Amino acid sequence: MSVMSSVSHEKLRSQSKIEENSHTEVEFTVRKNDILLHCSKFGMFHDPKSDEISIVKQFKWINKNNVEVHAITYGAAITKIIVPDKNGQMEDIVMGFDTLQAYQSANNPNIGCTIGRVVNRIAHGELQIDGETFQLEKNSNGHHLHSGAAGFDKKNWIATNDGTHVFMSLVSNDGDGGYPGDVLCTILLYLDNENEFHIEMQGLTSKETPLNMTNHSYFNLGGHASGHESLYNHVITINADKITVNDCDGIPTGKFMSVGGSVYDFRVPRHLRKALARVPGNGFDNNFCITKGSDQNLTFMARAFHPMSGRYLEIYSDQPGLQFYTSNSMPNPDQKIHPGAISEGDSSQYAYKTENVTHLEPISLDMTHTEHEIHCEYESDSNVDPIIGKGGASYMKHGAFCFEPQKYPDAVHHRNFPSIMIKPGETYSHNILFKFGVNK
């Protein structure tokens, strides 16, 4: 289903305003094809720039298998994903908060939200278009990260629905966060009965501008509150044979590194505990260059499996990169959270078959560092109190992982990276599919 028609940018802006003014019904329930969608009020949002107040809506999908997904219009954020384990026990597997105020807190590390205009880092917050320099917010060690204070995750999106399909739209004005052009973005969200949650993003612009969006959900298949020990028991697979090399600030150098023989090689299933014990720095925060399959639409990107619960997550996307992040910057009270080194054992028992995966060469699971790896640390442990999440849960370092499909970080400064620039008349498009299941 297309999120946008080919009508003009101005017409789409007008239509968004009409929908905002006319859609006054907040609480409703729709059922179609064994999918239930319920809409309710989550809170009230005060826009500090316009001084306008708007309702933050919450949408809850439930399919015939009792899988639930919740999302709110603030930040177009996923707030809950409830799935069964191998014994039928239901558990919420994404981090989140109980209140709008918590989502708006400066302590929120972009949990569950839609990142835009540009995900990840832009070196020195500088953007050049046709010889003109645009200065963006420097909100991370002198660089621009996740679009800063004017990002899409700080906005209350307009929402409408067509049956159990939810459309969220947002207009980012020319100059927001320092970016040029009026940008209209629309996201289609829906759950199906195959336990797949679909996110389809599109965008238009009035001026040439960068656009590189993603969803920033934090997953722990043992349960959102189960912490680092549960995360260490995950088995990870990533369909990538190289990564982009970072400097000590996490900024790509423009070079690539083969993952073969390194700690970054997840082409076969690997226990996360041992990988984290060996990776330089605090954990993984790397862009993996995805190996495209024969199907040029959605490509298998990665899989996470939690043997104790039997739950697994697979992610598919049409983007060339996947940022794999292991919550390295979350609080680490008393500096006690570390995976340690244990025998990884035989991960071949977790091998699986899936569609759209190219041939992946086997590798040794007992790997040592190579001379090409990055031995500097650009994120430090935070020695502060835990972040308090849903139900009073304590969120700390290595408490969850993120699979963030996107184009490569800092692409505006590297011509050898896939471009993130769009021009008037062009449509930005990014499709994500999260597939949930159980291995019994």
UniProtKB/TrEMBL annotation:
Function noted in UniProt: Mutarotase that catalyzes the interconversion of beta-D-galactose and alpha-D-galactose during galactose metabolism. Beta-D-galactose is metabolized in the liver into glucose 1-phosphate, the primary metabolic fuel, by the action of four enzymes that constitute the Leloir pathway: GALM, GALK1 (galactokinase), GALT (galactose-1-phosphate uridylyltransferase) and GALE (UDP-galactose-4'-epimerase). Involved in the maintenance of the equilibrium between the beta- and alpha-anomers of galactose, therefore ensuring a sufficient supply of the alpha-anomer for GALK1.
Pathway it works in: Carbohydrate metabolism; galactose metabolism; Carbohydrate metabolism; hexose metabolism
Protein name according to UniProt: Aldose 1-epimerase
PROSITE patterns assigned: ALDOSE_1_EPIMERASE
Residues reported in the UniProt entry to bind beta-D-galactose: 120-121, 216-218, 285
Residue ranges of coiled coil: none
GO molecular function: aldose 1-epimerase activity; carbohydrate binding
Keywords from the UniProt entry: Carbohydrate metabolism, Isomerase
GO biological process: galactose catabolic process via UDP-galactose, Leloir pathway; glucose metabolic process
Main EC class the enzyme belongs to: isomerase
Family listed: Belongs to the aldose epimerase family.
Keyword Manganese: no
UniProt-listed Gene3D superfamilies: 2.70.98.10
InterPro entries attached to this UniProt entry: Ald1_epimerase_CS, Aldose_1-epimerase, Aldose_1/G6P_1-epimerase, Gal_mutarotase_sf_dom, Galactose_mutarotase-like, GH-type_carb-bd
Reaction catalyzed: alpha-D-glucose = beta-D-glucose; alpha-D-galactose = beta-D-galactose
E.C. code: 5.1.3.3
